[in-house]
Amino acid sequence: MTKAIDAYFALLKGIVVLCLVGMVVLVFGNVLMRYIFNSGITVSEEFARWLFVWLTFIGAIIVLRDHGHLGLDFVVNSLPTPLRRICLIVGHLLMILATWLIIEGSWTQASVNLYTYAPATGLSMGLFFGVGLVFGISTMFILVWRLFLIATGQMDRMIVIDEETAAVSQGLEK
Q1: Cα atoms in the 13 Å half-sphere on the side-chain side of 85
Q2: What are the helix (H) ranges across 37-116?
Q3: Neighbours of 63 (CB within 10 A)
Q4: Angle between helices 125-151 and 44-65 (to 10 degrees)
Q5: Residue 124 phi/psi, 5° resolution?
Q6: How far, in Å, CA of 94 to CA of 128, rounded?
Q7: How many CB atoms lie within 10 A of CB 129?
Q8: Residue 156, phi then psi, degrees to nearest 5
Q9: pLDDT tens for residues 76-116?
Q10: Is 124 helix (H, G, I), strand (E, B) or coil?
């Protein structure tokens, strides 16, 4: 199971890289076309915006898995264990609720806009709003798993990642 999860996140990282490369090529190519040939690529701006939205949502999934989002870990980690566990459970339940709202809203928007097409690319707007479903479902699995770990006592504090710890763990210490 771990190999499948690692493969899924490797796929997500590859998609992020492709989105970033696509954005750079489209925007830079469009700038060159405008200044050199006095014309442009019609779909460039719209498609680059789509790639940016996908990159942002998929990047957020990757960062959530790596414990990279901002948090007030110094407050929560300084609490006694029972209070810390309660705070973590409440926090995760609130994040699960927010994720559910994203899934529900994305499903509604994707369904409503399935047969609405973007003006420049002609792609279904359901694809644009569908990234919320990918984000929501992936995030929901991560959060529910962490809630399970907290409830069973296997995780009792927020995981702290700072530059020094990251550098030491990657063998980049000074």
Answers
A1: 11
A2: 44-65, 73-77, 81-112
A3: 12
A4: 10
A5: -65, 135
A6: 26
A7: 21
A8: -125, 10
A9: 888 898 999 999 999 999 999 999 999 999 999 999 999 99
A10: strand
Note whether 30 and 45 are within 8 A (CB). Answer: yes
* Residue 67: partners with Cβ closer than 8 Å, 6 or more residues away: 158, 159, 161
pLDDT for position 1: 79
Cα 90 versus chain centre, distance: 22
Q: Of 18, 22, 14, which is closest to residue 44 (Cα–Cα)?
A: 22
Q: DSSP class of residue 170?
A: T
Instruction: Say if CB 22 and CB 33 are below 8 A apart.
Output: no
Coil, helix or strand at residue 130: helix
More confident residue, 114 or 67: 114
Tell me the domain boundaries of the chain.
1-66, 69-164
- Rounded to whole angstroms, the Cα distance separating 43 from 71 reads 38
Please give the Cα distance from 167 to 100 (Å, whole number).
35
